[in-house]
Design goal:
single chain, eight-stranded mixed β-barrel
Length: 281
């Protein structure tokens, strides 16, 4: 037989089909590979997203964890909580503790006045809750005007918490200029009320941008979520420990806060009567 005929004969032979066993092994290999990928994804997701935020997951989908060793509990609110049922809220509890103070958003920058502030501020006192008001700092707006705007819109009374400055953004300001802004607001407002305002900020933000000793002279309200204890080495008076709280009288979530002391200490922190005023005859 010639080489040409041999080649033709070779080409005419049918291809050998894979056996059923080979196909089955290939199928199982693909299935096993897919399972391993899914398992790896679940482990990565759990370690990097679930475990660090386990407090948040439990707060969202079950009963939240309440840090132990504290007795004075409160909340902070704004228009985001919409209309509040104060009849229910005044009897609401966080864990086994009644709500004893409410901190309310008042102003932001020089033009934003929280639409629910007046109602919330009125009803907090009407329901015998210690109340406070805060201003949200905007980095790129004149700081003197921000202080004046807060003082124009908010009129704190004896028994209210000191004014509060909420600082969450630095903007593009150099660190020294940013710190000078913050200190200017604090000093202007303190000159009016005669008490040191409270600084609200996150743990990392405080450590990174407000670590100058001068800021330690002001009471600190620290935001430090989903932890069993505050991992900040300095002093603090208030701790916002979750934004996933649920209480009677408020639809949706609300921030939960802890006061670092007893009720007597909380009242001592509030604005006191001016004993230097002349007595009426």
């Amino acid at each position: 037989m010639s080489n040409t005929r041999k080649t033709r004969a070779k080409r005419s032979r049918p291809k050998r089909k894979k056996s059923g066993g080979s196909r089955l092994r290939s199928w199982w290999g693909l299935l096993l590979g897919g399972v391993l990928i899914v398992v790896a994804y679940v482990l990565i997701f759990y370690n990097f997203f679930v475990t660090p935020l386990s407090f948040r997951w439990r707060a969202l989908y079950g009963e939240p964890d309440f840090p132990t060793g504290y007795d004075v509990m409160g909340i902070d609110i704004s228009h985001h909580q919409a209309r509040i049922d104060w009849d229910k809220l005044r009897n609401a509890k966080i864990g086994n503790h009644p709500i004893q103070f409410v901190i309310i958003k008042a102003t932001e920058g020089t033009t934003i006045f929280d639409e629910n502030f007046n109602d919330n501020f009125h009803w907090a006192r009407a329901n015998n809750l210690v109340r406070g008001a805060y201003h949200f700092y905007i980095p790129d707006v004149n700081i003197e005007r921000q202080a004046e705007y807060f003082l124009h819109q908010v009129h704190l009374l004896e028994g209210d918490l000191p004014p509060i400055l909420d600082i969450e953004k630095r903007g593009n300001k150099p660190l020294k200029a940013f710190q000078r802004d913050v200190l200017t607001w604090l000093e202007i407002v303190q000159s009016v009320y005669g008490v040191a305002p409270i600084i609200y900020t996150g743990k990392s933000f405080k450590e990174d941008y407000l670590n100058a000793p001068v800021f330690d002279e002001y009471p600190l309200w620290i935001a430090h979520y989903y932890e069993k204890e505050v991992k900040y080495s300095g002093d603090w008076v208030l701790w916002q420990y979750t934004d996933c709280g649920k209480v009677d009288g408020i639809r949706g979530y609300v921030d939960f806060d802890i006061f670092n002391g007893d009720m007597r200490a909380l009242k001592k922190l509030t604005i006191q009567p001016d004993l230097e005023e002349p007595l009426e005859e």
